[in-house]
Amino acid sequence: MILGGKIMFKISYINILFVIITFFCQNVFAKDVGSSALQILKNPVSAKAAALGNAYTGATDDVNSLTYNPGSLGLITAPEVTFMYNQMLADITMNNIAFVSKLRSFSIGGNINYVNYDDCGERYILDLTGGNQNVGSRLGEQLTPKDIIITLSLAKKINPVFSFGGNLKYIKSDLVDKDASAFAMDLGAIYKPESIQRLQIGFALKNLGTQIKYYTEKEDLPLILSIGGQYSFKALPINLYLDVNKPNDNDVTFNSGAEYRTSKIIDVRVGYSSDFEAGS
């Protein structure tokens, strides 16, 4: 009877997660490609995840999984801190810092992601007098668009096979002449089936929240449903990763990666992402 109770207890969590995923799938249909605001929310915030093709929904190795699946934080056993600086194209820079720690039976974490789009020139006053549409007096104010995303995380290991967590996000976006803000949340879980050792499956719903308004129209955030897995071979130092994603502004995309651990300090990684092909 006790064994049966445990089985029902574990199955109930999977059933609840399935209902949540099914409910939100009904609202995650492709619109125009890239039509959601703040596409920066899709960018990798971890060098390791980027090398693995961004296939990180089922990963539980480190603090970087906070952004991809908050449920994985419930499996972290020691405090971790990470920092990333990324110089992207067009002089765009991304700075990301994250931490995670244990608090009794919970895991807590935080993340700050700051994106700077470099200077876009200077601000001028438009002179419309006399029918002329010439640029008028110079204000000398540099135009520097930027985004900042602040995330707080909470997760818990429910039992040996199931971990659940969530993120709360505050998003502030500063355009050339307008700024806007939004709130969002992520929900995630990790399931380790007892019948398949060394396999873990992740589920994540990211950027569920308010719309953001810059001018007159409100825009949706890039809502993404992800299901992924990580498999570690017993006899080989190899990890395999696979993600299937359904954004609200694109077709289904696939991410995959592989990691070969040559030593305790050197890993070789390769990854593939279909994000650039979807919708094209």
Description:
The chain is mostly beta strands. It contains three helices and 15 strands. An eleven-stranded antiparallel β-sheet has the order 1-2-3-6-7-8-9-12-13-14-15. The longest helix has 24 residues, at 2-25. It is globular and about 55 Å long.
Shape: globular
By DSSP (H or I, 4+ residues per run), the number of helices equals 3
Q: Mind describing the biggest β-sheet?
A: 11 strands, antiparallel
In which range does the helix fraction lie?
A: 10-25%
Number of DSSP strand runs? 15
What is the arithmetic mean of pLDDT? 82
Helix and strand succession? HHHEEEEEEEEEEEEEEE
* Relative strand content: over 45%
- Low-pLDDT sequence parts: 1-10, 130-139
Q: How large is the radius of gyration?
A: 21 Å
Give the N-to-C terminal Cα separation: 55 Å
Provide the descriptors you would attach to this structure in a database record.
single chain; mainly beta; two-stranded antiparallel sheet; 15 strands; disordered N terminus
